[in-house]
Amino acid sequence: MEAPGCLDRWAKENDGLVARWRAVIASRNDSVVKQTLQQCHHALSQLLRKIQGLPAAVLSLPLELTVLYNTLIFQINVADGFTNEDAQEIEQALVRVLDARGLVRGEMSIEELWQKILLNTDMQQLAPVVHRLAGLQGALWLAANQLEKLKVLFEALSTTEGHTALSSCEPDRAILMLLSTWALPHDETTSLLLAQTSRDLKAVLYTAAAFLQGLRLMEEGDPTAAAGILQEAAAGLCSRRVLAEICTSIGCCYQRMGKPQMALHYWKQALQVDFQCVSALYQSLVLLRHLGKTDAELEALGLLHKALEGSGQGASSTSLHLLVRVELLVQVPALVSVLSTPNGSEVKYLLARRCLQMGRLKEAVEHYLDLMAVLQEKGWQPQEFLHRLPRVPEVFLEATSALLQQEQYQDSLTVSDEIIRRIIDLIPNRLTILLGSDQGEQGQPVQSPVIESSPPQLASSPTLSHENTESLNCILWASAAYLHQGQALAHLGKHKDAISQFSRCINLLFKVQFIRTGVAGDEIAQEDLCRQEQVLQAMKSLALLGRGCQFLQLEKDKDALRDLHLSLQVNPGQSEATQNLLQALWRLGRKQEAALYWQKFQSASAPAAAQQERRALPLYLLSQSKESCLLDEALTGKIQDYISTVTEDMP
Fold first, then answer.
1. Residue range of the domain that includes 258
2. Is position 193 within any domain?
């Protein structure tokens, strides 16, 4: 017969392709490796079709299943994971095995096909090739997170070898126990070369299953058990990249157990294994921030940004000597939140924000300018929500604040203009916000807000309108931009222009009216709207203060006095407003009022509520809302002399 000759020729073809692949892998030439991967896959696919072109026969089954095994291993790599085609190939192969054995089959699921083949005693001589193919089937189900099917399959594999699953085994460890006790049959009948040995496939399956189970336990809130299983995964067969991800996960377990130093140890270990493991860097900086180690946090942020910029450019930490690898079986980002990482823009924002908070203004400005350039390229719109970033106008407002503090006033004006240009057409003529009664006034529960454009209408069942919530945001953003422009122009000595911008800010803020009602509703929505009300009031106070100070510069003392009075009504005890009010009163000859205000200010202490309100302000307003301001010594000296004189003249 010609069949044996064909089988020998096909066996040599299989061995030649696998040998070629092994030689290329040893060369470590990435471009040649990828090209050869494609070529070997194509050639093995053609070889498989030749073999399957003949009727299924017992004599050819070992070769056919081996070539299928090798073809699928290459195919998984070419497709960067499992596909429906892989499952169909395995199912077709099982059907041919049954046909070759002359076993009756009807309409059977893939699980039933495996059961029939593995539990049939006539199949023992095919055990080595069938077990290899079962290992690929298990890998496919593991990648699809179909763990129950995987468990049933390996229970059947254990039964064929005379083993039984341990009934006393903990549910979390059942699959791991089945994989660890999987006895691979010795293949004495063939010397066919394999693209990946059965032993390596078993090791990869065990590592992937342990990694997956550890991640599950961590997400389910059992970090102690998760750490134990993840440490088993770390001892398994995997690439440096996967090992770094496992170490990162173990660190997260220890963080959740309240052991921050152990967490940092494992994250450091992850970075030693693979510097491109950005999730370890990200988790480290989050913990360092929590621990108050600012310098270390900023250093970690810088390293994270460099790592993200260089991702894909450095040496890959994934080895292709294993075609079926853990990373193809465990899709980490889809499974666990702790291993997700921000992108380059998000890290750049975190760097800018932290530098601004810590007063490192030059660095903050550089980072904000870089980030704004990226956002400008994307053609941002105010309505857009960027993943894990604040709204874009807020990023730009923080940038203007940094530029103001760095005394780059013209740049601050330019950025503010960009904000206003994009937002001004979205602002309504009038906006009325209906809030519930304050909690604690009359023992009433917190009520829900309603936001409405003109005309306002009371609602018995308050709900937040997205459109009108956006209108409020736009008013606040544009007002803050005008406020920053007024401050920049004031520093440049352009007092009239500064007054115009402060006035625009004030006029915008007065478009919003807060009305308290007795309508019950969502407490969280109420709190959010109350915070926005605090922001609006703070800006109103700052704009009135800024305009009042500019009137003083222009010696329009009565106008200044009016604005400073209003600023203090909105924010009583504001030291800078008080100082300028004293100056206005003194220059207007109203010395007695100045003395009374000064005495009142001296006896008052900043209430805790005022401090709390300041902490609730967004970062772009904090630098403008000073906690304290020393009064002018020359002016206060005059006021004290006046008080002394008046006291002496009293009978």
1. 203-339
2. no
